[in-house]
């Protein structure tokens, strides 16, 4: 129990730390950061349940006003802004990534964790993010998708990194990864 709580807190801190990379925003207003890598790692390393709890803890701290999102954003206002879909996508993305990573644990080297990160951390997160952007910016889904496309190459790189990091952790600390 204590180990689980510690891991959940550490991964919430990892998500926050990955948001410290200097903010760079595209035309959509959504900042580019490495935080989505943290979401992917929550799933690939901690699994669906603990990974989702780490993301919920992180978002709870953001809701309390801590400036933990990329660019130093925080507070309840971020949950009504253009990134609301991505914030919901953080939760769903970690869960889906975790489910797939648990099913494939110990197989496929770095490739299967990368695929899990791709499905949860890119596809699921972007579907919700695009829906949220379309809603908040009063755009069609197609227009919002165009705004999200510049993020995809970086997201693909993050998927590979998540797979490589997960494989390295599997070798170095096999007990760390959720079965």
UniProtKB/TrEMBL annotation:
One of its GO terms (cellular component) is plasma membrane. The chain crosses the membrane at residues 51-72, 84-104, 110-131. Pfam families: BioY. One of its GO terms (molecular function) is biotin transmembrane transporter activity. Its main location: membrane. Gene3D superfamilies: 1.10.1760.20. It is found in: Cell membrane. InterPro entries: BioY. Keywords: Cell membrane, Membrane, Transmembrane, Transmembrane helix, Transport. It is a multi-pass membrane protein. Belongs to the BioY family. This is Biotin transporter. It comes from Thalassovita mangrovi.
């Amino acid at each position: 129990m204590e180990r689980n709580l510690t891991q959940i807190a550490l991964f919430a801190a990892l998500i926050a730390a990955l948001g410290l990379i200097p903010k760079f925003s595209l035309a959509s207003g959504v900042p580019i950061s490495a935080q989505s890598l943290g979401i992917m790692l929550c799933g690939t390393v901690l699994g669906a349940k603990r990974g989702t709890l780490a993301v919920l803890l992180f978002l709870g701290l953001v809701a309390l006003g801590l400036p933990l999102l990329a660019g130093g954003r925080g507070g309840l206002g971020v949950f009504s802004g253009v990134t609301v879909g991505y914030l919901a996508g953080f939760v769903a993305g970690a869960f889906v990534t975790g489910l797939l990573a648990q099913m494939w644990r110990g197989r496929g080297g770095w490739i299967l964790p990368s695929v899990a990160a791709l499905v949860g951390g890119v596809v699921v997160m972007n579907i919700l993010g695009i829906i949220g952007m379309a809603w908040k910016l009063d755009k069609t889904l197609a227009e919002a998708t165009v705004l999200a496309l510049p993020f995809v190459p970086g997201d693909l790189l993050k998927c590979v990194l998540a797979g490589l990091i997960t494989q390295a952790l599997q070798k170095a600390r096999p007990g760390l990864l959720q079965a």
